[in-house]
Amino acid sequence: MGVSQRLEFLSQSGAGSLPALKALSFRTYADFQEASAELGPEFMQRRAREMELGRSGGDPVRYPGHCDLCGLDTEFSCDWAIYYTHDDGSREPVWRERLVCGHCALNPRLRGAMHYLFASCGLNANSACYLTEQTTPLFGLLQPLCKGLVGSEYLQDGTLSGGRNGAGLRHEDVTALSFADESFDIIGTFEVMEHVPDYRAGLREMFRVLKPGGHLLATFPFRADLPQTLVRARLKDGGGIEHLLEPEYHGDPLSRDGVLCFYHFGWDILDELRLAGFRDARCLFYWSWEGGYLGGALPMFHATK
Fold first, then answer.
1. pLDDT at 302 exceeding the cut of 80
2. What topology does CATH give the domain 3-304?
3. Are 138 and 109 in contact (CB under 8 A)?
4. Residue ranges of the Methyltransferase type domain (predicted)?
């Protein structure tokens, strides 16, 4: 199957005035390998353009574009709070996390999540939707748009599962959710599953609480070059953590210490989604210079029950 046949245009379905967002769809690593020869030159051109922008200087780096969510022309800007250092010593900001729209202030990952929730999952005011987050800008933006929205955090203050602490935050462990079977139309989990040692149990729980035909939308660190997931750390049988690679900690809205990353997922995550029960699972790559979706081929994972 050629690249042109893998294109999906995510547009209006439940998305209001959102324009189409072009994405490449893959269901297996073999699918991706088959298309890699044709994709290679385009991906290299994208990366070269991003690196050139990064070398243009300035803190933040700025360039003009159009934000699909705002529906407005804007100036995208990217600071250097997180950056890569290349072999030649040059730096490049982490576009996926730090490039923000001048109006909504959302980065490519969050704007992509919003776009997919509406256009691919059909999110609307009456949807029963669960997000594995509650203290984030994404939850705050979706709350007035979806009256059935539920969010949670993984609390470590003694709050019981399904309960709320003094700050009004709900506690949930994704490996043992408190919700009844078939509670939600949509589940969104963004940059969470890499921190869950038993992520397979988490996938099974999400499948359980989704209604038939429901959607799971997810992002996490993903290595498109790896057929198998890279395990960075694991729990020891007798307790404690065994680090297989140098510890990597990600930002945590509830802790200054950050949260340990156990996995960089590979293509086998699609198989794990199917083993959890999902009837369809795919990786969608999206990118748009004008739309401010930079960071190489941005991955989004979509599975249906």
1. yes
2. Rossmann fold (3.40.50)
3. no
4. 168-217
